[in-house]
Amino acid sequence: MRWELVGKRDLLLWLAAAVLLSLALQRLGFFDAERLGRGAANVLTFARDAVPPDMGVLPLAGRALWETVQMAFAGTLLGFLLALPLGFMGTRVLSPLPLVLLSRLIVAATRTVPALLWAVLFVIVVGLGPLAGTLGLALYTVGYLGKLYSELFEGTDPEVVEALRGVGASRLHLARFVIWPESANAAISQLLFMLEYNVRASSILGFAGAGGIGFYVNIYLQTLEYTRLATLMLLILALTLAMDALSAWVRSRYLLAGR
Amino acid sequence: MRDSCPVRAHDIWFAYRGEDWVLKGVSLEVPRGTFMAIMGPSGAGKSTLLRLLAGLLRPQRGSVQVLGHAAHNGRLPRPRARVGYIPQQLGLVRNVSALENVLMGALGRVRGLAPYLGLFPREEVARAMSLLEDLGIGHKARDKAFQLSGGERQRVAIARALMQQPEIVLADEFVSDLDLPRASEVLSTMRELGQAQGVTFVVNMHELPLVHDYADLVTVLRDGEVTFRGPARAVTWAELQEAPA
Known about the structure:
The complex is a heterodimer.
Chain A: H1 8-27, H2 33-50, H3 58-89, H4 97-112, H5 115-126, H6 130-154, H7 158-166, H8 171-205, H9 214-222, H10 226-255
Chain B: E1 7-15, E2 21-30, E3 35-39, H1 46-53, E4 61-66, E5 69-70, E6 83-86, H2 98-103, H3 122-134, H4 150-163, E7 168-172, H5 180-197, E8 200-204, H6 208-214, E9 217-222, E10 225-231, H7 237-241
């Protein structure tokens, strides 16, 4: 059987990607067998030391987990309330160019800083505790949802916009009566995704003193109390799975049905 | 005094880019209260002409006057709210109810913040409901637009246009997806409701039998030029097939 290479360009791209990946892995120590062997042994030691999880820590961990959920929920909603007007402001069909550029600048600037760093900054501003974490998550949410929303709103069917302009609708009318209803399903889906992300992110904000279960994760890591740490990790896993299931249910029940 | 021709276009030339003219010196006058059908093959410039009349495009040359106002800078000044425009794909908001879509036709005259909260004056809601009932879809008023059939959506689009209490309705091939009996029913209701309000219609259409039944006047476009204008009864397939003069 004779073979002929058809996608030469694709093959070259894949080869180039494979070479770059190998170089990066080699530089990062992925091919250091001795080090990886030591790491595997450490994992086994950690696993042995973490079992059985210490359930005595549950009341404390439960309270911390609840605080984490509250931070994620409040931070996401606050971020959403700020991202929505910024999204409208960043949509060319609704705003003059200077406002579009201003909105995109604000959103890009907030997106540049990771949630953990925002939390550190707010710890400096408002002190230790969940308030700093909530504000950090809110700003991080603004950065992402603001961008996603302006792109989503820009994608509204121009014919629907034209038809409403034809009835003498103002820009605010267009935002309320065309762009929001046409985009609401996707916007809420993105909001749920952000909430899932923020639940995970808020679990580590405690490392920076910004409240939630991360504070105790950090303490138990530093004091080598792995059985207690294991309980916290199981709780975080359960919370993440519960959030995924909840948002999947909301999507299927309310959003997919509305398409 | 009210202009006897609420829609006037004089020698309009339009190209989407460069010198690739879609319309070449088209002139048009639509007397008040008449139904003018714009006909012609695909690509003749019918939709472009309608969008120019709706003030959504700006001609490179010539002028468009609607309700006595010149289309300065390509945009019709207010009262745009008095011009109903039904685009080819109808332009309905899919995720809201038929009733809300119709109520959007009142946005040009309902002031204040109440509509943003979903609050409309009772008489406007009653009027929207009455239009939907007149068009035979009162029972679907609470259904979302995406749940309606093609014919029902067309009726909602007509109701929204009439909700504006327009002097002119511009409609772009909005019955082309329907079979003839259903298209005839929709046009008949629209014409009846429109006549009661003294509305002038400019409608892009393909179907000659419907044009004979419902239009007063016809303008035929071909390759961006007017090849026929006259009473609807006078137009035949021959005029539609003819090469430009």
